[in-house]
Design a protein that fits this description.
alpha+beta; Jelly Rolls; Arc Repressor Mutant, subunit A; 2 domains; 5-stranded mixed β-sheet; 10 helices; 19% strand
C-alpha cells in the first residue's frame, strides 16, 4: 500500500463539492444542512489531516460539533460561531446526531473576496487560534436569514453582477461579526494603523501555506513580497506579535507532529517529506522546537 507522507493542501478549487454545496468560482463555498437531509460533516470529512487554504466560518445551529485545528481540539455547541484562519491543519471533524449547521469558506486571495476593509482586518489581523463567539438567538436568526439571501444571490447564474453582490454581502457579514468580536473583547480598534502590516501578514500566510515544506528562509518570503527582509520581519511581528521565523518553524513542526502521530511513517519519511537534508538535521530541528526527539515524541503518544 502506498503511503502518502505529505499533508494535503485543500483550496476551494478542490473542495468536496457535493450535495447541497454551492460554489462561486474559487472565491466562496457554501454548505448547510438546515433541512436536516444531509450529514453536516460532508464537505469537511477527510480520512487524513488537510491544510485548508481558505478562511472558514462555522455556525452550529443545532447539536454539537467537534474538530481539531493544528492538533488542538475544539467544540461548538448550539449558537456557537467559529472563524478559522487560512492554512490551518484541520482534522477529525465530527457532528453529533441531528446536528445542523452552516459552513462558509472564503478564499483569502479571491477576486471578489480578498478585502482590506476595517472589519476584515479586525477579524483576521491577530487570528492565530480559532475565534469562537456565542450568538444570541436573535443574532443566529439574523445570520440564517442573511445566509439564505446569499445563497439566493449565488444561484442566479445569469446575473453578470453576482460577484459585486457577493463582495458586498460578505463585507456586511464580516462587519457584523467584527462588531460582535469587538464588543466581546472591549479593546481599541487599531486596524487603520495596522493595515500595511496586516496585508503583508495575510500574503505571508498564503505563501507560507504553499511553500513551508521547501522554503524556510525569511529572505525567500520577503523576496516574494518584494520587500526587504528587515521590513518583512518587522511587519509580521507588528501584525501577529510573533517572529516570522517562529511562524515558519511552527508550520513545519505542525506537519511533522501530524505525520509522526499517524504511526505509519518513519522519521526518515517525514524528514524527506519536509525536505530536510537528512534525518539528523530534521531530528536536531525537531528537538530544538519541541524539546524531545522525533522518536521520543512518537513514544510519548503510545
Amino acid at each position: 500500500m502506498l503511503k502518502t507522507s505529505e499533508i494535503r493542501s485543500l483550496d476551494l478549487s478542490s473542495a468536496n463539492n457535493k450535495g447541497t454545496c454551492l460554489q462561486f468560482g474559487d472565491d466562496i463555498f457554501l454548505f448547510d444542512n438546515l433541512d436536516a437531509k444531509e450529514d453536516y460533516t460532508g464537505p469537511l470529512s477527510s480520512p487524513t489531516p488537510c491544510r485548508f487554504m481558505f478562511l472558514l466560518y462555522l455556525v452550529c445551529v443545532e447539536g454539537e460539533l467537534d474538530f481539531n485545528v493544528d492538533m488542538r481540539p475544539y467544540h461548538l455547541a448550539k449558537n456557537d460561531f467559529a472563524i478559522i484562519r487560512s492554512s490551518c491543519i484541520f482534522d477529525d471533524f465530527r457532528a453529533a446526531d441531528g446536528s445542523r449547521g452552516i459552513l462558509v469558506a472564503i478564499s483569502p486571495t479571491g477576486k471578489y473576496t480578498s478585502d482590506s476593509s476595517r472589519s476584515t482586518l479586525y477579524l483576521t489581523r491577530n487570528l492565530i487560534d480559532p475565534l469562537i463567539l456565542h450568538l444570541s438567538n436573535d443574532e443566529l436568526v439574523s445570520f440564517i436569514g442573511f445566509y439564505s439571501h446569499l445563497k439566493q444571490v449565488l444561484m442566479r447564474k445569469d446575473n453578470e453582477f453576482t460577484g459585486d453582490a457577493v463582495h458586498g454581502m460578505l463585507l456586511v457579514m464580516q462587519s457584523h461579526f467584527a462588531q460582535l468580536q469587538k464588543s466581546t473583547e472591549g479593546i481599541e480598534d487599531k486596524s487603520r494603523r495596522e493595515t500595511a502590516s496586516t496585508e503583508i501578514m495575510k500574503k505571508f500566510l498564503v505563501l507560507l501555506g504553499r511553500n513551508y515544506s521547501k522554503e524556510r528562509s525569511i529572505a525567500f518570503y520577503a523576496g516574494k513580497l518584494c520587500i526587504s527582509p528587515k521590513y518583512f520581519a518587522q511587519s509580521v511581528f507588528k501584525a501577529s506579535h510573533r517572529h516570522a521565523k517562529d511562524w515558519i518553524n511552527s508550520y513545519v513542526i505542525m506537519d511533522a507532529k501530524t505525520m509522526l502521530s499517524r504511526g505509519d511513517l518513519t522519521v526518515q519519511e517525514v524528514s524527506n517529506s519536509l525536505n530536510f537534508a537528512n534525518p539528523s538535521f530534521f531530528g536536531k530541528f525537531f528537538k530544538a522546537e519541541v524539546g524531545i526527539s522525533p522518536k521520543a515524541f512518537v513514544k510519548s503518544l503510545k
